[in-house]
Specification:
This protein has 1 helix and no strands. It is mainly alpha-helical and 56 residues long.
Length: 56
């Protein structure tokens, strides 16, 4: 099974989630892909998510 990944410079991220929308539209437009699982993308303050975001 093929796997696909996106690599982004998070220093340029503005939190618009366009990457998530584009990915979902690209990979769920065929029969049988209605229930594809997607990683939840969240924006958190600090050094990075999930490292210690609850303590910030």
């Amino acid at each position: 099974m093929a796997q696909v990944a996106m690599v982004m410079n998070l220093d340029k991220c503005i939190g618009c989630h366009t990457c998530s929308v584009t990915c979902k539209q690209t990979w769920t437009n065929r029969t049988g892909t209605e229930y594809v699982w997607f990683n939840n993308v969240e924006t958190r303050p600090g050094q990075g998510y999930p490292r210690g975001h609850e303590d910030q």
